[in-house]
Amino acid sequence: MDIGNGERRVEGRNAASGRAAGFDVHKDKEPDQMAQFFRSPAMRRFAGLATIVLLIAIAVLSLLPSGDLPPVEGSDKVKHFLAYGSLGGAMAMAFGPGRALRAFLITIGYGALMEVAQALAPTGREFSVLDEVANILGTGVGTGVALALRR
């Protein structure tokens, strides 16, 4: 029963005593507004731009000789996880509803392509299966976060 202002009163019978019981349920509209924001065309455009920037940044950082990379503390695998998680999430947001699997697969393919390019480029870098595993895990988490934010 609607009692105004988005609140409902749920009524029923107490199973043990058979007496009438009721409580108010407050309908919170905040998550709906947040989901609408993440589904908006402006957010999709921003995510598309972020995807392009991330694709370029990942390519540059992947193909530079390891001696030319800026020194950053932390595990190489964590860096891969974060980079590809960001890319997967941005791409899933940019592609829009119903296309998260496509974004996931494209991001994984891009990660594999970068690993192969490292092996072929004369930069002293090599292909690493563990890097690709970190890429896949990061992509899965990033895509999952994008899906959760849009719901």
Question: Helix and strand layout, with pairings?
Answer:
Layout: E1 2-4, E2 7-13, E3 20-26, H1 30-39, H2 41-63, H3 76-95, H4 100-120, H5 129-150
Antiparallel strand pairs: 1-2, 2-3
Helix pairs in contact: 2-3, 2-4, 3-4, 3-5, 4-5
Transmembrane segments: 46-66, 78-96
Protein name: VanZ-like domain-containing protein
Region (Disordered): 1-23
List descriptors:
151 residues, mainly alpha, 2 domains, 3 strands, 64% helix, elongated, transmembrane, membrane, transmembrane helix, VanZ-like domain-containing protein
How is this structure best described in words?
- With 151 residues, the protein is mainly alpha-helical.
- Helices cover 64% and strands 11% of the residues.
- The protein folds into two domains: 1-29, no CATH class; 40-150, no CATH class.
- It has a three-stranded antiparallel sheet with strand order 1-2-3, with no helix packed on it.
- Residues 1-23 are annotated as: Disordered.
- The chain crosses the membrane at residues 46-66, 78-96.
- It comes from Hyphomonas adhaerens MHS-3.
- Keywords: Membrane, Transmembrane, Transmembrane helix.
Indicate the proportion of strand residues. Answer: 5-15%
Please count the helical segments: 5
The rough form would be described as elongated
Average pLDDT for all residues: 83
Q: How many strands, which pairing sense, and closed or not: the largest β-sheet?
A: 3 strands, antiparallel
Head-to-tail CA distance between termini:
26 Å
Derived from helix and strand composition plus strand pairing, the structural class reads mainly alpha
The low-pLDDT segments are none
How many domain modules?
2
Number of strands: 3
What's the order of the H and E elements? EEEHHHHH
Helical proportion, percent range: 55-70%
- If you compute it from the alpha carbons, what radius of gyration comes out, rounded to the nearest whole angstrom? 23 Å
Query: Strands across the major sheet, in which order?
Result: 1-2-3
